[in-house]
Fold this protein.
Amino acid sequence: MSSSLKKIQQPIQEELKAFEKHFRQSMKSNVALLDKITYYIVQRKGKQMRPMFVFLCAKMCGGITESTYTAASLIELLHTGTLVHDDVVDDSLERRGFFSINALWKNKIAVLVGDYLLSRGFLLALDNNEYKHLQILSTAVKKMSEGELLQMEKARKLDIKEELYYQIIRDKTASLIASACSSGAASTTQDDEVIEKMRLLGEKIGMAFQIKDDLFDYGDLDVGKPRGIDLKEKKMTLPLIYALQKADKQTKRSIVNAIKKDSENPRKMMEVIDFVKQSGGLEYAHQVMKNYQQEAFDILNEFPDGEAKSSIIDLVNYVADRKK
């Protein structure tokens, strides 16, 4: 883990340690195969950014409670379940440098494990009478599914407008970070206005997070070489949408045709990447990301200063400045 993330975690270090036990316990099953797979999942956990948002928002909005641990476990169970399903949908054999569940145990088992994790999350909320958490997270899972399906439906046409792109990423990516922030607040206060502000904060951060991901596909403005994975998968990202909006009809047709018919051709994809760069697509997307980042800071400015608030500010900067 990077030193900047360790610094961000400082105000909630003890809580995150306690959360690990909480989370492991929430995955327990009487089925040996399931226990083996969930143990594997726990061993290869990622940065745990969503639980960090839960704890930091709770700390900023009142203080960490037992309900905060339930919210963090619920978020992580649902996030993990959707990732397991994503790997099946995308036919991915790797996740964070490890084999994916479907690579090791095949698709049928991976789908069932994803279902198990989602149901464990919902039961965790019900067992603790946390109906507000259940409502927040069920809404997030619904939006994530809608966002993915909307993207798939529109991907074939390759004519996504900017507004539709924002709707897709708001549902697909930002809704889970929004639910982490709002459930963190809901674990410590019943003030609906504060809970909604935290939801909006998470949404702004999630939008910035996804646009940063879009930029990685083109080598960002200052980071590494282009990946071109989104182009290969015919995903319409903000730099490309902007570049196509500015292009004349003929150029637009030839770029769209290249993506539709030659997405496996590295030379053709480099031509598309160069076209996006020359059209100012990266600068535009970078500016939009910065705008969302600023909107997140504007919401945070309404809250009193403290170590939790400072860590959230650092986390918002981390999301926009990260190198991978």
In short: The chain has 15 helices and two strands. Residues 3-321 form a domain with the Farnesyl Diphosphate Synthase fold (CATH 1.10.600.10). Strands lie at 94-95, 98-99.
